[in-house]
Amino acid sequence: MTTLIEIKVPDVGNVAEIDVVEVFIQAGDSVELEQTIAALETDKASMELPSSAAGTIAQVFIKPGDKVSEGTLVATITPSATATASVKPEPAAPVPPVPAAVIAVAAVAETIPAAAVQPAAAPPLPAAVATAPTQEKAHASPSVRLFARELGVNIHAIKTGTGRKNRILKEDVKHFVKKAMTEGTAAAGTVGIPPIPTVDFTQFGETETLKLSKIKRLTGQNLSRVWLNLPLVTYHEEADITEMEAFRNALNAEKGKDEIKLTALLFILKAMVAAMKQFPSFNASLSSDGENLILKKYFNVGIAVDTPNGLVVPVLRDVDKKSISELSLELAEKSAKARQGKLMPADMQGGCITISSLGGIGGTAFTPIVNAPEVAILGITRAKMQPVWNGKEFIPRLMLPLDLTYDHRVIDGAEGARFMATLKAYLADIRRLLL
Fold it and tell me: What's the whole-model pTM score?
């Protein structure tokens, strides 16, 4: 009759409770002598528990999350015919705490600017990485396992190490974190951000699955990357456009039946570019290393256009050098191409700042997300008549809500407020654009 060999928790230095972090075996598995079968952790150290015999696992008595102590039965093994003598497992030497500067590698990786990170599309995390089977043996020391757990990395997701016999080193964990960030996998939960759980909605009623358009997928991935990497601030304001609208309506009344009518957006374009000339930080991008500000001497403005396939942003070039009528024709042409799906990549590149207008739909305010590597975006909602106190009485004025979102690494609150005050002044009296 074959005698089962018991594997128990060894003496780890007068510790009352030891956490079971990972269990790498299950009943029926074949193990070799000194093969790691579990990872244990105290408040000061981490250790791997090796098998004291070669053979087949008969039963496992622990699971991740259990608390054990010296002498706790871990598993029983049916020894193989060629099993060697039992070897008493030695606890690993205590591992010093991971330095905060090293643990912060994930935070450092998150500061990679979107221009440097840019995948055109951040691919979703492969299921094999997010749910790597715990039965697979990961060749890594206890200190490396602890380091990976501190960063929220599943050690099994790192397939091959660069150490001797493919052993996983700390450098491999760091490389994995950086690679995950550059591939946009932070949102998938591998580097500290928990993923949104999958729900079977059919249990609640009838459903239908529609595949997202490529434009929507790419837009969503880009906005997620921006949201994770940029400290965004949104400033809300209202501009009095009563006189501007009276002037615009007068100009449109002079136009022929087949001529393109002027929209308020065209005047906002010119006013915003004039404000950008006074505040160069709004016409800039942060360098990939975060050390320098790249100031642009040209003024190209992106206009967010709603299309059947999703949001696209054609760019109007050299806005400062074109008249209102020229911009009107160009905007109408590019908006039509956008809705027909005929925009070329060059039509959507080179923007300095973006305008997103919901005025034709409604709303009172919203929070647009910066189109990185730009540093600001202006949101516009529907103007409405409001009673405004002029010091003596309330008078009706047409007020336009404005929402400015900016990258706080480049633009501070005071500068953002001054920019909006200047923009308001231009919109309230467009004659100022001639000065």
Answer: 0.58
Q: Are 380 and 359 in contact (CB under 8 A)?
A: yes
114 within 8 A of 229, measured Cβ to Cβ: yes
Query: Around Cβ 328, how many Cβ atoms within 10 Å?
Result: 19
Tell whether domain 230-434 is in CATH 3.40.1190.20: no
CA distances from 283 to 144, 301, 375, 407, 408 (A): 45, 10, 8, 12, 14
Residue 214 has pLDDT above 60, yes or no: yes
Let me know: does 381 contact 264? Beta carbons within 8 Å: no
Please determine, for residue 86, whether its predicted confidence score (pLDDT) is greater than 50. no
pLDDT at 139: 76
Q: Kindly write down the DSSP assignment for every residue of 118-182, as one continuous string.
A: --SS-PPPPHHHHT--TTSPP-B-HHHHHHHHHTT--GGG----SSGGG-B-HHHHHHHHHHHHH
Is residue 107 predicted with pLDDT exceeding 60?
Answer: no
Return the closest-CA partner of residue 334 out of 373, 358, 307, 368: 307
Range in 30-39, 374-383, 391-400, 417-426 with the lowest mean pLDDT: 30-39
Listed by start position, the domains of the chain span 5-79, 230-434
Q: What amino acid is encoded at 304 in this protein? A: A
Cα dist from 414 to 263, 371, 417, 419, whole Å: 30, 22, 5, 9
Q: Which of 120, 182, 118, 122 is nearest to 345 (CA)?
A: 120
Q: Which of 139, 156, 236, 408 is catalytic?
A: 408
- The CA-based angle 298-313-433, given to 5 degrees, is 45
C-alpha Rg value of the chain to the nearest Å: 31
Which burial class, exposed, middle or buried, applies to 233 when counting CB atoms under 10 A from its CB (0-12, 13-18, 19+)? Answer: middle
Mean pLDDT within 242-270: 94
> Which range has highest mean pLDDT (114-118, 140-144, 310-314, 377-381)?
377-381
Phi, psi angles (nearest 5°) of residue 159: -70, -40
CA–CA distances in Å: residue 187 to residues 55, 182, 195:
41, 12, 6
Greater model confidence, 330 or 153: 330
Give the CATH number of domain 5-79: 2.40.50.100
Would residue 175 show up in a list of annotated catalytic residues for this protein? no
